[in-house]
Fold Peroxisomal biogenesis factor 11.
Amino acid sequence: MTVTLDQVLRFLNTTNGREKTYRGVQYFARFYAWHLFRQGATKDQIARWTNLKNTLAVARKLYRLGKPLEAGQSAYAAVSHKDEFIRFTQLGRQIGYFGYYVCEMIGWLHSIGFYKNSNNARVLQTGFKLWLAALLCSIASGLYKLREINLRASVLERSKRAIAQGTEKEAAKGADVKVESKLLEKERYAVNYQMTQDVLDALIPAATLDYIGLDDGIVGLAGLTTSIMGGMTQWKKVNGDH
């Protein structure tokens, strides 16, 4: 695949594209600072990458100031979903994200000195809990969707066997079955892709809250990986599958 300058500019011309790029560099800096520490680098060498990480972490929040409104709108849309389990998990996901982005915004105002909050540490901790809750809801939704996809795939498999046996009535459905099979595979890929991203992202708040013991190297690689995955999704939105 040949990447053109126009494609790169289209990607970077979107807020989400720039945010994912900043996020990727931020988490790479986190990983690399950890790597330098393990290699016995000097404090100045480590501080260079730590400062880059911290600066990008603050800068990225500017791109996300409108995110609470987006999450609120998605939560409202989730209420009308016909499937009760999907409705519950998607509503939980969006409410979690709404709370996380609000806490993040309060923390950002504190970090730039615009609004000093004596409970800033608690607010940030609450934000990470809400982020983790949102991701767990998303993972639960993904597992449920996979179950539904597998059930539909089983029905299709029975149809394929009937077609193979030459039943005239079923043979007429052959083309439809092939189309449905391709659609199911696309759905399964999308759900697995999102679940992988969610599981890796969940390591970040879980480690920050000390629910699991992970060093900055693992957290940095997890964040870098999900940044690339999110960036690829955004790339396809603006440039298509090429």
Q: What stands out?
A: Residues 1-64+216-242 form one domain.
